[in-house]
Write a structure and sequence with these properties.
alpha/beta, about 270 residues, TATA-Binding Protein, seven-stranded antiparallel beta sheet, five-stranded parallel beta sheet
Length: about 270
């Protein structure tokens, strides 16, 4: 199997020679020896010394020697095969260019692939700013399952009951928090939120701190979120980011937003 990872960021003053020497030392510590060039016709060790000169080494060791002499070489492309005493094999492909680092590790052992990638990321001080970027949750492809968070006072229960009836009439499976009202969400409620694809937060007058806690849990679980709020109520949405639908209804007349809610829900 093959795992290719692209890193758009690495230090502009990266010690390139030092990075490849660390990779060489790691291979040695793991008892990997370089396969002969006849093993694979793709084996190569290329250094571009200048726009008019490229050096091609015959082995990883020779490549390191050339890099010592020309430490400013860029781009660099290497493709090497290595085998240890247990006959485990790994292919290491590294392309280091000015704008990014591309590392490809190939092996039939997933643990070896993961370990080499972690070390390559460490040795080259590479990062991918987009790696942890949150992707907006789409309403398309979701199951018709909803967790409905609301206040468990008289007004909250009454409005929720009407909304619940409407949602079930559309064929949705609806679960609620069973009357828990605490800042720390019980495991039972967290499990219910996790089981449902959609999270609807019904905001009515009164203390909504536990509803906000449930919404925060839904955000961490990357649920498709809809906030349905009675007009004029302050609700701290800041910690939830911006990836949610927000609908407001007048007074206690929640039916006024049913048409908009239909659009926000998966069909």
């Amino acid at each position: 199997m093959k795992d290719i990872r692209v890193y758009p960021a690495y230090p502009s003053d990266l010690d390139v020679l030092g990075s490849f020497m660390k990779l060489e030392e790691y291979l040695r510590r793991c008892n990997f020896e370089e396969a002969e060039s006849a093993y694979c016709p793709k084996i190569k060790y290329n250094l571009e010394v200048s726009s008019t000169r490229t050096l091609i080494a015959d082995s990883f060791h020779e490549f390191i020697d050339l890099l010592r002499q020309f430490p400013q070489s860029l781009p660099i492309h290497i493709h090497g095969h290595f085998i240890n005493k247990k006959k485990k094999q790994v292919t290491v492909i590294v392309s280091l260019i000015k704008s990014r680092l591309i590392v490809t590790i190939e092996s039939n052992d997933l643990n070896i692939i993961s370990a080499f990638h972690e070390k390559a990321k460490e040795f080259f001080q590479a990062s991918n700013p987009l790696e942890n970027e949150e992707k907006p949750v789409s309403r398309y492809g979701l199951k018709k399952t909803i967790f409905l968070a609301h206040r468990f006072d008289e007004a909250g229960n009454e409005i929720c009951s009407r909304l619940n009836t409407f949602l079930k009439g559309l064929g949705f499976d609806v679960k609620e928090g069973a009357g828990y009202e605490a800042r720390n969400i019980p495991e039972k409620v967290t499990r219910k939120i996790k089981e449902q694809d959609i999270f609807i937060c019904l905001v009515t007058p009164g203390d909504s701190s536990w509803i906000l806690s449930e919404a925060s849990t839904a955000k961490v679980l990357n649920k498709y979120m809809i906030i349905v709020s009675q007009m004029g109520i302050e609700f701290s949405k800041g910690i939830l980011g911006q990836d949610y639908e927000y609908l407001e209804f007048p007074d206690e007349n929640i039916e006024k937003i049913y048409s908009k809610l239909l659009y926000a829900l998966p069909s």
